[in-house]
Amino acid sequence: MKIAILSRNAKLYSTRRLVEAAKGRGHEVRVIDPLRCYMNITSHRPSIHYKGEILDDFDAVIPRIGASITFYGTAVLRQFEMMGVYPLNESVAITRARDKLRSAQLLARKGIGLPVTGFAHSPDDISDLMEQVGGAPVVIKLLEGTQGIGVVLAETDKAAESVIQAFMGLKANIMVQEFIGEAKGADLRCLVIGDKVVASMKRQAKEGEFRSNLHRGGSAALVRITPEERSTAARAARVMGLNVCGVDLLRSNHGPVVMEVNSSPGLEGIESATNKDIANTIIEFIEKNGGPNKTKTRGKG
Question: Looking at the whole model, is its pTM more than 0.85?
Answer without folding.
Answer: yes
